[in-house]
Amino acid sequence: MKAPKKALLFFILPFGLLFTAFYLAPILYAIKQSLCRVERTGTFGPAVEVFGGLTQYQRVFADGPFWESIGRVLLFGVVQVPVMLGLALFLALLLDSGLVKGRRFFRLAFFVPYAVPGVVAAIMWGFLYSPSLSPFDAVTGNVDLLSADVVLWSMANVVTWVYVGYNMLIIYSSLLAIPQEVYEAARIDGAGAVRTAWAIKIPLVMPAIVLTTVFSIIGTLQLLAEPQVFRTFSSAVTSTYTPNLTVYSTSSIPNFNLAAAFSVVLALATCLLSFAFLKVTQRGGDK
């Protein structure tokens, strides 16, 4: 028994060390920082970090712009995530249907936007939205895509463009794992392509759809690159436009203790939303 245990430890130890160093340690350090505050003796005295208890969390829960940013990204997610995943599912079903010639080409073409770094994609779309720079001045001249009322959905378009192909590949991979015998049985029963997709394919790839939804919920609350770049194009995007941008701006002051408290609260909110969604989907599956 000793040899297998040693072999098991040999394989687990590298992961355990990296997981502790790059995941657990930063979380614990952020929690520690969030429980501290900085004190100064006099106006120009040296800054001393002392234990502050829940002082930073009191400031977080009293911070109106932070909770407004939470509401903003929740609205973003309620609209953008279903649209993105609906498009991803449609494209995956289209590739799996056999109606499309050159599936390898289209699979790569749909995935290419995900290979573009988020900052680069945001800059590119920012120029396309800008009335003075966009080649589509017939659109941008009549509709201000960077105005306070529209800029959130302009960013949603960027996120959708980047991540549709990524989510499509996850769903498409799940479709490829469905046994051919299931399709043969459906054909024998007289099911057409649409009926097969609705009654067989979509239910069988539901775990993949749930997975991509959880990823999208997490990504929505972590929205940073797009609003950070769009601040240079639109005055409607402030330093507290999204929760992650609030954390970044607060740490740049610098106020690392308050930024850490924002991060902890945001992480807890992300976990709660993700687990709540999983619970809802599990109950729906049990029925």
UniProtKB/TrEMBL annotation:
Where is this protein localized, as stated in its record?
Cell membrane
Look up the domain of life of the source: Bacteria
Q: Does the keyword Membrane apply?
A: yes
Q: How does it sit in the membrane?
A: Multi-pass membrane protein
User: What keywords does the record list, in alphabetical order?
Assistant: Cell membrane, Membrane, Sugar transport, Transmembrane, Transmembrane helix, Transport
Segments crossing the lipid bilayer: 7-31, 73-96, 108-130, 150-172, 204-225, 258-278
Q: Does the UniProt entry include the keyword Calcium?
A: no
Q: Which Gene3D superfamilies match?
A: MetI-like
Which GO BP annotation is one of this protein's?
Answer: transmembrane transport
Instruction: Extract one GO cellular component term from the record.
Output: plasma membrane
By its UniProt entry, which Pfam families does this protein fall under? BPD_transp_1
The ABC transmembrane type-1 domain covers 70-277
Q: Which SUPFAM superfamilies match?
A: MetI-like
Protein name as annotated: Multiple sugar transport system permease protein
Q: Which family does it belong to?
A: Belongs to the binding-protein-dependent transport system permease family.
Write down the species: Actinoplanes campanulatus
